[in-house]
Write a structure and sequence with these properties.
Largest sheet: 6 strands, antiparallel
Distance between the termini: 39 Å
Number of helices: 1
Structural class: mainly beta
Shape: extended
Number of strands: 6
Order of helices and strands: EEEEEEH
Radius of gyration: 17 Å
Length: 98
């Protein structure tokens, strides 16, 4: 478990506790604490698959403990080494991508 604290005072979070696997560099969960140090949210990572030397989570589940609401994101079809260059991120290129 690693604790992360923001360097700036404008952050909405006072700290994050990160559970991770030090051998495969996979994150398992992140707990977010508000400015009053109350447990605000939890982000859980699941359904990992290995792509080459790297692991990627296929599912991210965020729960807001104050409201009881949550969001689940499913990821698939990862594409690596796509040979993107700086021009692919210009304002014009990004408008075309919509």
């Amino acid at each position: 478990v690693t604790e992360s604290v923001p360097l700036t005072t404008g952050s909405g979070y006072s700290r994050q506790l990160i559970w991770h696997d030090t051998e495969t560099f996979r994150r398992w969960k992140v707990e977010y604490y508000d400015r009053k140090n109350a447990h605000l949210k939890t982000l859980a990572y699941d359904n990992y698959n290995q792509y080459g030397d790297f692991w990627r989570a296929g599912e991210l589940n965020m729960v807001n403990h104050l409201t009881g609401k949550g969001t689940v994101m499913h990821w698939n079809n990862f594409d690596f080494d796509t040979r993107l260059n700086e021009r692919d991120f210009s304002q014009t290129a990004l408008r075309r991508a919509r």
